Amino acid sequence: MGTAIFMVLMVCGYWYTSRDLSSRFKVRRSIGWDVYFLVALYGCIFVLQGMLATAIIWLLLLIVSSSANALQVIPGEHLRWQMEFMNWSFLGIQAPVVVMLAFAVGFCMYRSNWSESARLNSSGRKDLYQQLSKSNGVEQLLYQCMQEGELAWITLKSRRIYIGMVHAATFEYENTANIVIIPMLSGYRDSKTLSMSIEHNYSRWYAEHNITLTSEPKNAMAFRKVLMVDQIESLSLFDPASASSLAMTHYDGVPMEVHGTFNPDSPP
Fold it and tell me: Where are the transmembrane segments (predicted)?
């Protein structure tokens, strides 16, 4: 019986954490024993809910039996349906345990597949991601960039630098965590002076060739860059208005012109 309870507990916990969006994010960000305890925690919640539902059934049987005995619904019989429920067995397992596990599985399936929290719309997903990003400075900054259209300054460990719009970010799996950006400027930091040199001015290219996020046959997404998170050294917001004070020079020493923010519907 204990094995059956433990098995249902772990299966329910795993099923829920693999289906629920919020829980899936929490599991992916946990390591080591934290994952097992998190799965077991959700399983315990469903088993306890099943236990509570079973207790309610027992209480209802007690009330019905007491009422029937008081009213002598069946003359000469002293009904004890609550005790019969407790003593009944199914395949060698007591009925209350079977009912409890059935309720636990039912609650798990409902919460995982049919409840409103399991069917989040775009607004609900946005609110969820905003809440989850509060505990991570990198994700919070990326969320701000995506929501407000701010440009991000990303410096890689190789001293390569990208400045652009954050299109998407994935942190669900640690090994494949990445950031997708639409670059506006790219360059590198000099190994000796650490000054920044601009190699490519994508913003100027977009403007000269009328490239936007919706242009045809080629749009800005054709120039997107996928940066692995484990290769990023630093991340910050970039303000084009103050770019002149950042001492950015072209590789030949000529100051580069920095265009403003990129409007998806029109050239920058």
Answer: 35-65, 85-110
